[in-house]
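Run YcjX family protein through structure prediction, thanks.
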Amino acid sequence: MASLTTYTDEARIALDTLAGRAAGLMSPSLRIGVTGLSRAGKTVFITAFVHNLLHGGRLPLFDAQNSGRISKAFLEHQPDDAVPRFQYEDHIAALVESRVWPESTRAISELRLTVEFESASAWNRLLSRGRLSFDIVDYPGEWLLDLPLLLKDFETFSREALEMSALPGRADLSKEWRSQNRDCDPNQPADEMTARKLFEAFSSYLRACKSDQRALSTLPPGRFLMPGELEGSPALTFAPLDVQPGAKAKPGSLHAMMERRYEAYKTHVIRPFFREHIARLDRQIVLIDAMQAMNAGTEAVTDLERALTEILSCFRQGRGNLLTGLFSHRIDRILVAATKADHIHHESHDRLQAIVRRLADRAIARADFSGATVDVLAMAAVRATREGTVKQGREALPVIIGTPLKGETIAGDTFDGETETAIFPGDLPEKPGLIFQQPKPGKDGGDPPAEESLRFVRFRPPRLEKTAEGITLSLPHIRLDRALQFLVGDHLA
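Sure, done. The structure for YcjX family protein is below.
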């Protein structure tokens, strides 16, 4: 990963880490990165994480909580004043009071949650202050996919972008941009209007790839989809060009303009993001929406695998020692979690987990080689459904019961967002590799039969249950406790 940084970057990282380690002697902390591609549930995960610790949620597999060793959990001021705060209060109000999902992550944000606890070890009780802060960093996975660009020049970036745009799942969406590219001479004089038209056509193609119907994941540059405060700047107004291999950009040409802006994007956007945020992480969870990809088809599943491999290869993963740990952070635990496990019956959870393992195989092998511990999980940070059975003739079908979001459809029926219904979601394939295969067409050459096509719908957040005494329970979940145990349990042991 050092190849992604300059010597100046490494010096800054070392100084920042050393200062952080010194502060940690008085106020120990663990920095946890939460990422994933859009709609994977990053905001919901963090909100549920914090809510369950603040309110003593039901977390039987989270040992420190289940054994009663956490005496107190509370929010504190975050250490980075220049980073927007994760608005936990707004998000929990949306989930609990309005029963709507919080808005997706659009930029980086941070929140500090501090716990006071008693160690399970007598020796640790002597050495530990019994207080630990979790600095939770929320950032878009789309931005993380930019990091490999640091290793690519403009020619390589352009060639790969053009090759990707011609793939079967993208060719129709990129038609307009590729047409403009063919009509454009890279050696023509630099012109702002031409640059803008190419950028707009290219970014429109990327946005179309991200739609629910395609659900594609590998779409760099990430800031073209989530520009934030840089929208409209020259560093975000460029596009790949069909340049000849080895061709040098002529001074004053469109090629030279695009190449300069691409390099500015790497210098002023990607490098600071890596140096100031990614290089400071201790633990990481990567959330993926495998359901959406399977809904969209084989091209989306294959692209999700490609994106996940690139994401995991970007972390500084592995185990440090006492000396190197003073000057650099290493991510020693990475959790890859498929969200929305509540959209299927628990009988399919093991299959979903196997699918995640298959998607992450290559990337996990790379992480394991460097000494990081990697795990996969099927979970729902907030469980929006419950399970039941419905009799169909003599057969009892396992179903999930919940309130589909307004506009969701099944077999031609459109839901109003208020009506609760029982849904048979279908079975995931027993062999994970089958999700990478194109479904066989129907007898008439059309779409595959409904029973062979997996379709998942989205549900509204649940109404919180109350005890007989009228006490409102915390947000329900599936395996959030196991996720917390893996990410932070050893630091509370």
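The first strand starts at residue 29 and ends at 36.
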